[in-house]
Recover the amino acids of this structure.
């Protein structure tokens, strides 16, 4: 990172007292469009403006602790201020860009209760965090975080899916589109959450979440306001019989027990004037703690042959397919044939009922598989329940790293209380010590830990392809909504790649023989549109071998890029994404269930000729989702391509620089 800090004198204005003991401070973004007004005295509150328009009315913030001398927020006094301009170049391995620049203006308010408040104004949003400088430990009883919107705007709300225990769920749901005053008061919502405030969209996020619970929000169903709510600190837990997954039974009457000297998570309000800015907003990554593992060149992103989604759906072989050594050798052979970097052994290679990750089932010879994969140039990834791995963390990492295993896919956390978040950091740190990466499934949204621990390479917390095994949601709609909201938080393990592709009327949820919604090219395009440096091929080798053109294309796509641009798009309707890898480009487009024509302007290309390999919806893709057209063209930056997208359709293009 390169950081430059200079004075910002004119950017901070200390206004005259509003009333006795109350002062107002103003902070603006470098371009002057994002403006914060902070009042302090009778509590602390902030207001947010964009381009002169009020977005958030005075919204109060506070941290209530068990320290009486530190909890007098209603009579808070400012004991000092500090202002600065921060300019950073952030190196971003396994992210949507190789590096990016950040500029902001920062205001620090030192408070008379042992806390400070840091506030930052960026051109594309604002963020604040509390900083504590006390001795010993303290209990955080409650955090106050208000978001009082200026009007009854429409929100995209991902509610908790568990009415009985809303803090215990997988953090994956559709977005309910509704005015803020119609918020369902029976459920909190997890982040990210987007509010359409008219001229811009405002998205609530958080970053640098460590040793603290994640933030949910809730509304009162009457006013256009949201407030932060948090899972309480666990007191007792129990393990279920099937997977030994740890679940919270009872809680303490507070949300966190923390060190007296620490920083608290950043509360982010990203502000985007165009929908196309949303998937490439970098605030979560930028505000996270920098790399703690040092060298990360041993981490290899790539694609993964995966067996669980297709239900080990191999045919035409001379062995009994299942969770056994011959089946996984078959997956390894397929990965080696296609240049796929990894094979994952999902649930079942160890006995989940025993809660012992050190013992495999009798049908699996893991050392033999590890050697077989190594000789084929394929890496192995092991699935584990998160708390089961955590209980034998050091031992398991040492043993499996020594065997040649490359990483873990950890699952079924389904919480983000303080203890759960601490477990995530513990796993990320210990796996890095043994040069193992982690794919976090059953996980809350990413909050920048992939910057702090680059081996935390991917995250679920997304309504992915697994849902189609047992339900019939509107997946194409989600696919053109999620990149604008959830992907702002970080990478997504959506687990795509189906070769059985159904139009709307033909879709059926069949657990053992699942299919996707939409067209074949919709599936291909997700490999380009979604940020995913460790990406699954969810179908079976048998299905892929029947579709050699599509399989070769998917297997050959890069999974990380030097640069990402959103060329066109509207949240909830369609998206067109371009990524540069060296001097070549890949472009993907997705639509909802509405057919549309995309006029693709190639002016983003540099000078010269490019060879374009194009996969697009076939003329009959509206009736048969698997219909596609495959062609090659020579193109240059002055050209335009008319892409016809079927309902639930898409397109995928690879552009290679022609040096002839």
């Amino acid at each position: 990172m390169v950081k430059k800090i200079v004075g910002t004198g004119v950017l901070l204005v200390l206004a005259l007292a509003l009333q006795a003991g109350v002062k107002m401070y103003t902070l603006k973004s470098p371009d002057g469009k994002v403006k914060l007004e902070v009042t302090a005295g009778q509590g602390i509150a902030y207001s947010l403006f964009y381009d002169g328009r009020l977005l958030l009315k005075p919204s109060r913030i506070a941290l209530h602790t068990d320290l009486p001398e530190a909890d007098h927020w209603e009579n808070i006094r400012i004991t000092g201020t500090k202002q600065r301009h921060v300019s950073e170049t952030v190196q971003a391995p396994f992210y949507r860009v190789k590096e990016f620049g950040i500029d902001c203006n920062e205001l620090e308010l030192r408070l008379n209760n042992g806390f400070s408040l840091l506030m930052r104004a960026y051109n594309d949003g604002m963020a604040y965090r509390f900083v504590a400088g006390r001795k010993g430990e303290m209990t955080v009883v409650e955090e106050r975080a208000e978001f009082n919107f200026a009007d009854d705007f429409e929100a995209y709300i991902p509610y908790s899916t568990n009415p009985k225990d809303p803090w215990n769920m997988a953090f994956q749901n559709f977005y309910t589109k509704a005015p803020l005053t119609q918020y369902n008061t029976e459920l909190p919502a997890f982040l990210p959450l987007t509010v359409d405030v008219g001229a811009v969209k405002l998205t609530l996020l958080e970053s640098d979440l460590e040793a603290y619970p994640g933030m949910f929000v809730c509304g009162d169903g009457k006013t256009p306001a949201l407030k932060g709510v948090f899972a309480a600190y666990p007191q007792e837990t129990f393990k279920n019989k099937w997977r030994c997954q740890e679940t919270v039974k009872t809680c303490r009457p507070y949300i966190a027990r923390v060190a007296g000297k620490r920083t608290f998570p950043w509360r982010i309000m990203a502000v985007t004037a165009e929908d196309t800015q949303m998937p490439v907003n970098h605030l979560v990554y930028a505000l996270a703690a920098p790399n703690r593992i040092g060298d990360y060149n041993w981490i290899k992103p790539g694609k993964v042959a995966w067996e669980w989604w297709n239900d080990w759906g191999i045919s035409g072989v001379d062995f009994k397919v299942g969770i056994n050594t011959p089946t996984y050798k078959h997956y390894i052979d397929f990965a080696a044939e296609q240049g796929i970097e990894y094979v994952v052994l999902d649930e079942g290679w160890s006995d989940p009922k025993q809660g012992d990750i050190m013992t495999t089932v009798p049908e699996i010879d893991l050392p033999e598989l590890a050697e077989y994969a190594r000789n084929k140039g394929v890496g192995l990834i092991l699935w584990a329940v998160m708390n089961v791995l955590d209980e034998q963390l050091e031992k398991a990492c040492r043993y499996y790293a020594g065997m040649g295993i490359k990483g873990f896919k950890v699952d079924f956390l389904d919480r983000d209380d303080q203890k759960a978040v601490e477990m995530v950091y513990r796993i990320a740190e210990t796996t890095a010590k043994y040069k193992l990466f982690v794919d976090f499934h059953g996980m809350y949204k990413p909050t920048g830990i992939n910057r702090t621990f680059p081996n935390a390479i991917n995250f679920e917390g997304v309504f992915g392809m697994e849902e189609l095994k047992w339900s019939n949601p509107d997946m194409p709609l989600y696919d053109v909504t999620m990149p604008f909201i959830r992907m702002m938080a970080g990478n997504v393990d959506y687990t795509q790649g189906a070769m059985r592709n159904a139009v709307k009327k033909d879709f059926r949820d069949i657990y053992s023989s699942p299919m996707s919604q939409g067209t074949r090219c919709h599936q291909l395009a997700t490999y380009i549109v979604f940020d995913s440096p460790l990406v699954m091929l969810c179908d079976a080798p048998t299905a892929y071998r029947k579709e050699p053109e599509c399989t070769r294309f998917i297997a050959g796509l890069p999974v990380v890029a030097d640069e990402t641009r959103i060329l066109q798009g509207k949240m909830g309707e369609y998206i067109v994404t371009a990524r540069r890898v060296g001097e070549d480009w890949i472009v993907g487009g997705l639509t909802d269930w509405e057919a549309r024509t995309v006029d693709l302007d190639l002016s983003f290309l540099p000078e010269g000729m490019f060879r374009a390999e194009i996969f697009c919806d076939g003329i009959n893709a509206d009736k048969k989702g698997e219909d596609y057209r495959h062609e090659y063209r020579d193109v240059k930056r002055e050209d335009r391509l008319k892409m016809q997208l079927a309902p639930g359709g898409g397109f995928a293009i690879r552009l290679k620089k022609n040096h002839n």
Observations:
- The two ends are 38 Å apart (CA to CA).
